Recover the amino acids of this structure.
C-alpha cells in the first residue's frame, strides 16, 4: 500500500467456416453504460431466445456476429471458433510457433489458435493435433474460458450429479467455474460435460464471466452510469479493457480487472476504483514517459500482475494502495519520488529515489513498508 506520507521509511528484503462466426472490433459500444446497449434487431432468429440478451450484449461489444441477419444460436460452436472469440476478447500478442500439425498457415483461425496455444489456453488433443473443426464439448468450452480468465482450479469431485462423466483433466476448472457461479447445473443437477455446446450457450457463459468490456474510448462507472457524484458503481463480474483513452472512475469491481493489449494505443486512467479480485496488466502504451500509460489515483488493489510486452509505465498516485505486485515483464512503476523498474532478462527489481539521485537497491524481491502498511513486489520471471 503506497502512501505519500509514509514513503520516507523504506525497508528492503531479499472460408465457409469463416462465415459461421464473423468477429469484428468496430461495432459501437456506448461507454457510459455498464452493460452493452441494446442492438435493434441485429438478427432475425434470436427474438425470445433464452440467450437473446447475452447475444445482444456481445454483438454490441463487437466480439461476434452472425451472417445475413442470422445468428444461429442453437448451432454448435467449433474449437477454432471459440479460439477466435477468446483471442478477440483478450487480444493476445507475441510471437509463437504453431505446434499443431492440423492448423495450416493459411487457415483463417491460424493466428488465434497460435496465440492461445502460446498463452497456454489450449493444449490440443492427442499428439500435436488441435482438431479445429471439431464441435466443442461443454467441458472443453468451460476449460478454455476458465484458462483465459484465470479462474482458480479447485481439486476434487464436482457437485454435479454426472460428475463421473467429466474428464479428470477438466474437473479442477469445472469446479472453479462452478464455485465462481459462472456455470450452473441443469434442473436435475447434471452438467452434461460431453454434450456439444451451442453458440448461444457459449455467449451465455461469457456473459456470466464478463460484466463489461471497455472496447471504445470513453468514461465508465460512477456518475457516467447514473450514480450520485462520489458513489461507486458496483459490478459483479470481471471487467475487460480493450482500448486506450479509457477512464474508469468510482467503481467497485467485485471480480478481476483485465487491461489488455489493445490499450497499447493510449492511456488508461483509473480513479477511485476498488478491485476485490486481481488486476492483470498485459497492455499499456509503453510510452516511456513519466506521465504514465496506466494511471491509478485513489485506488485500492490487492494483487496486480504485470505481464505486458510493451514495457508500460504504471503511475500510482494520491493514496493508491496495493498489497502485492507480481512482475513477469519489463515495466516501470512510479510513486511520488520513487521509481521501481523491472528487468525481465536479469529478473532484477531496482528502486530509485529521485531525491537521492541514485539507486537505493537492486534485488529480486522488494517489500516497501510504511508503518503498518506495505507493498510487496515480487519477480516471477517468465
Amino acid at each position: 500500500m503506497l502512501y505519500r506520507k509514509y514513503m520516507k521509511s523504506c525497508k528492503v528484503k531479499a472460408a465457409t467456416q469463416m462465415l459461421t462466426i464473423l468477429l469484428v472490433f468496430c461495432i459501437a459500444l456506448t461507454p457510459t453504460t455498464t452493460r452493452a446497449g441494446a442492438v435493434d434487431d441485429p438478427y432475425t432468429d434470436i427474438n425470445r431466445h433464452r440467450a437473446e440478451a447475452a447475444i445482444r450484449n456481445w454483438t454490441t461489444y463487437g466480439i461476434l456476429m452472425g451472417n445475413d441477419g442470422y445468428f444461429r444460436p442453437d448451432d454448435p460452436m467449433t474449437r477454432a471458433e471459440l479460439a477466435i472469440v477468446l483471442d478477440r476478447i483478450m487480444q493476445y500478442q507475441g510471437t509463437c510457433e504453431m505446434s499443431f500439425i492440423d492448423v495450416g498457415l493459411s487457415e483463417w483461425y491460424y493466428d488465434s489458435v497460435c496465440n492461445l496455444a502460446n498463452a497456454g489456453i489450449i493444449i490440443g488433443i492427442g499428439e500435436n493435433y488441435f482438431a479445429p473443426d471439431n464441435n466443442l464439448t461443454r467441458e472443453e468450452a468451460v476449460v478454455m474460458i476458465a484458462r483465459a480468465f484465470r479462474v482458480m482450479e479447485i481439486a476434487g469431485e464436482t457437485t454435479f450429479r454426472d460428475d463421473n462423466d467429466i474428464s479428470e483433466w477438466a474437473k479442477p476448472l469445472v469446479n472453479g467455474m462452478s464455485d465462481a457461479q459462472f456455470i450452473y447445473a441443469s434442473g436435475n443437477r447434471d452438467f452434461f460435460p460431453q454434450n456439444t455446446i451451442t453458440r448461444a450457450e457459449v455467449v451465455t457463459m461469457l456473459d456470466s464471466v464478463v460484466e463489461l468490456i471497455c472496447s471504445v474510448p470513453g468514461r465508465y462507472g460512477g456518475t457516467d452510469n447514473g450514480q450520485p457524484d462520489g458513489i461507486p458503481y458496483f459490478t459483479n463480474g470481471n471487467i475487460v479493457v480493450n482500448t486506450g483513452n479509457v477512464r474508469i472512475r468510482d467503481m467497485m469491481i467485485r471480480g478481476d480487472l483485465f487491461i489488455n493489449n489493445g490499450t497499447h494505443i493510449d492511456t488508461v486512467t483509473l480513479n477511485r476504483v476498488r478491485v476485490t479480485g486481481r488486476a492483470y496488466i498485459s497492455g499499456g502504451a509503453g510510452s516511456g514517459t513519466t506521465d504514465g500509460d496506466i494511471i491509478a489515483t485513489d485506488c485500492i488493489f490487492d494483487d496486480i500482475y504485470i505481464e505486458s510486452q510493451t514495457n508500460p509505465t504504471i503511475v500510482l498516485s494520491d493514496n493508491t494502495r496495493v498489497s502485492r505486485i507480481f512482475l513477469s515483464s519489463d515495466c516501470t512503476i512510479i510513486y511520488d519520488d520513487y521509481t521501481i523498474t523491472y528487468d525481465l532478462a536479469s529478473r532484477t527489481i531496482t528502486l530509485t529515489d529521485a531525491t537521492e539521485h541514485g539507486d537505493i537497491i537492486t534485488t529480486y524481491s522488494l517489500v516497501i513498508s510504511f508503518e503498518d502498511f506495505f507493498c510487496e513486489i515480487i519477480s516471477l520471471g517468465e
